[in-house]
Design a protein that fits this description.
398 residues, mainly alpha, 66% helix, 0% strand, elongated
C-alpha cells in the first residue's frame, strides 16, 4: 500500500542493549540474535540468516526466533531485486508502476513457511496465555514483514492492506497488555501515517475505508519505537526518514538518516539514502559529492558487502541530469546499466535514460542502440513503449 503500509526497510534491532528490558521479549537480548542483527545491518544477509537459524535451533518454540530469520530472508531477496532503494517509494508513482519481480521459488516458499511458522507458534502461545504481549508482537511483526514483502514483490495491495491492519491490531493488543512495550508502537505508527496519506477512494478500493490515520501521531509513535524499542529502533528511524522525505521535510529526514549512516558506516543503503535525500531536497552539488563518496568507498576491499552500485550510479546520473551535466549523466546511466548484478527493471530504466542523454548530445546512433536494449522483449517491459517511441523520434528534453 502507499508508503508500503508496512514498510519494514532494514528491519531488525537497534544498538546492543546492555540490560534486558522487561517490556520486550527475552530472546531479543540473546547474544546470537544481537550478532545476527549486527551482520544484518552491514547487509550481510547470509551471515545474519546463518546466525538466526542457530537461534531457531536453540529456541524452536519461540515465534520471534523464526521472525528474525524471516527478516533476513525477505530483505536479502528485495535487495537482490534493487527494491531497497527508497527513491522507488518516496513518491506516489510506485503505486502505478508494475514490476515483474523474479524471486526464486525456493525463496518465496521459505518466506511463506517462516511467516506461517511465526503466526502458528504465536497463536498457540496466545491460546495458552491471552496476555502474552510477546506473542502478539511476534505475530504482528511477521504480518508486517510479509505485508511489506508482498507489496514490493507482488503489488498485492488488498492483501498487504489487510495484513498491515492485522499487524497494527496485534501491536495494539500488545500495548493494552503492556503499555510500555515500545516496539509495538512502530507498526501502529506506520499505519497511522500511511492511512492518513491515502485518498479516500483508495482506502475504499483496498477495503480500509473506515480505518483512521494521523500523520503526526504516526511520526510520534515511530519516534517512541526509535528511542525506547529493543527490536525496532533502526527500523523505526529508517521508516521515519522515509515518511519525512515523502512529505518534503528534508532537513528532518537528513538528520535522521545521517545518524543512521554515522552509526552504520558500512551499510551501503544508509549511506546511499543520504545522497538520495540531498538530491530530493534540491542540493545537487551535495548529492553528487555524496554519491561519489559512496562509490569511492565501494572501491575499498571489504568496505561494503555486495554493494548494488547501479543504485548509486543511477541516482548520481539523475542528479547530474538535473544540474544539466548531460555528458556525465549519460556516462553514469550507462555505468548503472553495465553493473553485473543490476536487476532487469533498473537496467532498462538506465538504458532508456542513457538514450535520452545521448540524444541531447546529438549521438543519435548510440541513443537508438540504448533504446533498442530498453525495448528488448523478455523480462521487464515497463520502459518498452517509451523506448520504441524514442527509436522513431529523438528525445529533445521537452
Amino acid at each position: 500500500m502507499k508508503l508500503l503500509l508496512a514498510v519494514g526497510l532494514f528491519l531488525g534491532g537497534g544498538c546492543c542493549v546492555a540490560q534486558p528490558n522487561p517490556h520486550a521479549d527475552p530472546i531479543d537480548f540473546d547474544p546470537l540474535v544481537r550478532d545476527g542483527l549486527n551482520h544484518f545491518y552491514n547487509l550481510d544477509y547470509d551471515g545474519a540468516s546463518q546466525r538466526f537459524e542457530k537461534v531457531i535451533q536453540a529456541h524452536p518454540d519461540d515465534p520471534m526466533a523464526y521472525a528474525f530469520d524471516l527478516v533476513a530472508v525477505i530483505f536479502r531477496e528485495l535487495y537482490h531485486q534493487d527494491l531497497l532503494d527508497t527513491t522507488y517509494y518516496a513518491h506516489d508513482s510506485f503505486l502505478s508502476t508494475k514490476r515483474d519481480v523474479q524471486i526464486p521459488a525456493a525463496s518465496r516458499q521459505k518466506i511463506e513457511d517462516l511467516t506461517n511458522k511465526v503466526i502458528s507458534l504465536a497463536d498457540q502461545r496466545i491460546r495458552n496465555n491471552p496476555r502474552d504481549a510477546n506473542a502478539y508482537f511476534a505475530r504482528g511483526y511477521a504480518r508486517g514483514l510479509h505485508a511489506a514483502y508482498i507489496t514490493l514483490a507482488d503489488h498485492s495491495w488488498y492483501t498487504a492492506a489487510k495484513q498491515g491492519l492485522a499487524a497494527r491490531g496485534d501491536s495494539e493488543q500488545a500495548l493494552k497488555i503492556d503499555p510500555d512495550y515500545a516496539d509495538a508502537d512502530m507498526a501502529i505508527g506506520i499505519q497511522q501515517f500511511a492511512v492518513a496519506s491515502l485518498p479516500r477512494f483508495v482506502r475504499m478500493v483496498v477495503g480500509i475505508a473506515g480505518v483512521g490515520g494521523n500523520k503526526e501521531k504516526g511520526l510520534d509513535l515511530l519516534k517512541v519505537a526509535a528511542t525506547r524499542g529493543v527490536v525496532t529502533p533502526v527500523e523505526a528511524r529508517t521508516t521515519l526518514s522515509l515518511f519525512l522525505r515523502h512529505d518534503g521535510r528534508y532537513p528532518e529526514a537528513l538528520a535522521v538518516q545521517h545518524g543512521l549512516a554515522v552509526e552504520y558506516p558500512h551499510d551501503y543503503l544508509f549511506r546511499l539514502e543520504e545522497a538520495n535525500l540531498a538530491k530530493d531536497e534540491g542540493n545537487g552539488p551535495l548529492a553528487i559529492a555524496t554519491y561519489k563518496a559512496v562509490l569511492a568507498d565501494a572501491q575499498k576491499p571489504g568496505y561494503f558487502i555486495d554493494p548494488r552500485l547501479q543504485m548509486a550510479y543511477f541516482g548520481l546520473a539523475d542528479t547530474e541530469r538535473g544540474q544539466n551535466d548531460i555528458q556525465d549523466a549519460a556516462q553514469h546511466y550507462l555505468e548503472a546499466a553495465r553493473q553485473p548484478n543490476c536487476s532487469d527493471w533498473l537496467r532498462k530504466r538506465a538504458e532508456l535514460n542513457a538514450g535520452e542523454m545521448l540524444d541531447l548530445l546529438h549521438q543519435r546512433s548510440a541513443a537508438v542502440a540504448e533504446y533498442q536494449k530498453a525495448a528488448n522483449g523478455g523480462g521487464d517491459q515497463s520502459q518498452a513503449s517509451m523506448a520504441r517511441k524514442l527509436m522513431d523520434s529523438a528525445y529533445t528534453g521537452k
